[in-house]
Amino acid sequence: MLIDFAQFALYAALVTGAAIILGKWMAAVLDRPHTRRGVLARVDGAVCRAAGVDPDAEQSWVQYAAAVLAFNLAGAVLLYAILLTQGWHPWNPEGLPGLTPWLAFNTAISFVTNTNWQAYGGETTLSYFSQMAGLTLQNFISAATGIAVGVAVIRGFARRETKHLGNFWVDLVRSTFWLLLPLAIVLGLALVALGVPQNLLPYTPVETISGGHQLLGQGPAASQIAIKQLGTNGGGFWNANSAHPFENPSAITNLIEMLAILAIPAGFCFLYGRMVRDARQGRAIFAAMGILWAVGLGIAYTAETVGNPLIADAVAGAPANMEGKETRFGIANSALWAVSTTAASNGSVNAMHDSFTPLGGMAALFNILTGEVVFGGVGAGFYGMLSYVVLAVFIAGLMVGRTPEYLGKKIEAKEVKLALLAFFAMPIGILGGGALAAVVPQAVAAVQDPGPHGLTEILYAYASATGNNGSAFAGYGAGSPWHTTAQGLAMLLGRFAFIVPMLAVAGALAEKRTVAASAGTFPTHGPLFVLLLIAVILVLGGLTFFPALALGPIAEQFAMTAGTVFGAH
Question: Does the predicted model carry a pTM greater than 0.70?
Answer without folding.
Answer: yes
